[in-house]
Amino acid sequence: MSKNARLSLIIVAVVAVVVAGFLFFSRDNNTTAAPQSADGKVTVVEYLDLECPSCRAAYPGVERLKTEYGERVTFDVRHFPIPSHRNAELAAVAVEAAGAQGKRDEMFRVLFDAQQEWGGQQTSQRAAITAFAGQLGLDGAAFEKALDDPALRERVLAQRSEGSKAGVTGTPTFFINGTKFTGAPSYDALKAAIEKALS
């Protein structure tokens, strides 16, 4: 290889490294969870833990915002079960199992409404969660089978892993059009952030 060809290859390699480094370090780590939709609508992504009291406290406000904004805002709930919460992962799988029977939102609601009954326990609350499925009129045998489905557990854990990569360290954590929401996630604060994104 000639000296000029070798020099050209070195220059190309250096430029490539500089460009890659620039792209890496200029990347905003707070925007990895949900890019802004192409149609200009607003997307709110929430990472939550069903056993987390703060998530339960934020829940009514989020439901109110969903009703108020309708199709103008997409709300995407993702699981982030905290390992120290003994039944959080089971509850997340239960939501997905209920979703297989068309009752995902209803299971979210009943688990949050009854969180003081099953949350914070150091023993498995499978029986209580299965009873909630019965209250919702779900097929009990299908629900039990889904609770043991490795694919549903993997879906939950994949969402937690995705959240960790996006910078989630606690729950609830919200991203509005990919930007991490900071501060207490009250109804008013979230509404203000959504209005800003809509403007």
Automatic annotation (TrEMBL):
Pfam families: Thioredoxin_4. Residues 5-199 form the Thioredoxin domain. Coiled coil: none annotated. Keywords: Membrane, Transmembrane, Transmembrane helix. InterPro entries: Thioredoxin-like_fold, Thioredoxin-like_sf, Thioredoxin_domain. Belongs to the thioredoxin family. DsbA subfamily. This is Thioredoxin domain-containing protein. The lineage of its organism: Bacteria, Bacillati, Actinomycetota, Actinomycetes, Pseudonocardiales.
